[in-house]
Amino acid sequence: MSTVVFWEYRPIGENTLQELARQGITRIELLESPEQFDMADAKSMKYVAESCRSCGIQIVAYHAHKTNFSDLETEEKRRARVDLCKRQIDTMLELGGKVWGSHARTADGILLKCYEDLARYVEGTDVSVVLENFKDEGLWVEDRVAFLDRINHPHIGIVLDVGHVRDTRGANPMTIPGGPTRVLTMCGKHLRFVHLHGFKDGVDHFPPFARGDTMQWVELFRMLRAFNYSGNINFEPKGEPRHRNSIEMTALAPERIVKMEASTGILEEFV
Ligand SMILES: [Zn+2]
Prior knowledge:
Elements: H1 14-22, E1 27-31, H2 42-55, E2 58-64, H3 75-95, E3 99-102, H4 109-122, E4 128-132, H5 141-151, E5 156-161, H6 179-187, E6 191-196, E7 198-200, E8 203-206, H7 217-226, E9 232-235, H8 246-264
Parallel strand pairs: 1-2, 2-3, 3-4, 4-5, 5-6, 6-9
Antiparallel strand pairs: 7-8
Zinc ion binds next to loops.
């Protein structure tokens, strides 16, 4: 689960992490939160690591959502930004994490160079460096896949965010039967990580199975299985003050999906 559930409301520490552990959630994606800790600084991350350890929580991924590649007009600035990412990856490795992801709002030649540098940096490790799809045009799954085709590196891939997918009519295909199949087919070999949340009325980051959630959970998981997806999945609902029961609903979600899948009995249609 992502620590976005505490974003802008509760600081990351033993109290918050303990709450996850109480619900049986022990593996997290840590959301970059510069007002609380510096992901590029080993000393700062030592305190986060200690809190995690004392609660039995393991950091699986870093979500460097504040780290962008948009304002790098000189080579010096570009290198400095890549160095910052490398230092974040270093502390993540130290903490046992395996996936480093950013939003990377502009997908241009500078981003390509930055990601190529990062690809070389993580060669020989089991770290994946990922890009997230977004709602804005130019950042859709098809755009990300085209960008990743250009890099074509086994350590670089997409984090498919199921709430951020859009089609040309502005709809979210992940909420329409057949959509998850098409989108996962599009991601193909580039899929490295998945962000999951509920979706309704055009709004994402709901807890899974929130009242009115239209996400096609069963098809999504059937297709992940059909594609032999072996990476991690990460539930990413927002929490308080917007949603009061996100952690509890996330803890229950895997079992609900399994039950739903068992009760629909149309597996053959998708495999
Ligand atoms: Zn996401």
